[in-house]
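FORM 7B: Structural annotation worksheet

SECTION A. Query
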Amino acid sequence: MIDNPTLTAMRERRSANRFLSQPITDEQLDAILEAGRWAPSAFNSQPWDFVVVTDPALRSQIGTILREVTWAWSGFAAAPAVIVVAVDSARDPIHFVEDGAVAAQNLCLAAHSVGLASSWAGVYRSDAREATAEKELKKLLHLPRAHRIIAVVPVGTPSHVGRGSRRPLAEMVHRDHFRPQPEADPEADPRASLALAASPDR
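SECTION B. Predicted structure
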């Protein structure tokens, strides 16, 4: 199978939920943000704004807000930098969610490539009336009304890195048309139906 540094980074990246207080350099942070800048977007609309939060008090407030969307909120708040991925929905009313998601993925891969770790807290809700965490974050960070927050990405040196697992490629690739896979027998291997749900590692 073909291999190269990009493919290796994709395989080896893991989400970190706890971080050390060790600071990150401006050079590392700039490299991560530059990767986000080069993410693809519909019609090259580039609707992103990245709010980088390093102030400890603000990070603590963000962590408290994230209690609504992730069990790892306290670990996220401890990261030396938190990147809030916001998108201007007016620049791309149809695909702004995808634009923001792919930019966040670039940030996570870039963090791994410079020797750091990251994670992802999904904040966006399709029903804006129910997006309480998003509303609170927008108010805290003074984001304009048209902006939507897609994700919050903590970045830093991990205190723990989980093991990752993936379904075999043969189970998820279908040639020319979809072919259902045989159902796993839970009695034969009870782990089969619980493997993905049981672990928070990503």
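SECTION C. Observations
The chain has one domain: 5-156. The chain has eight helices and five strands.

SECTION D. Sign-off
Analyst initials: ____
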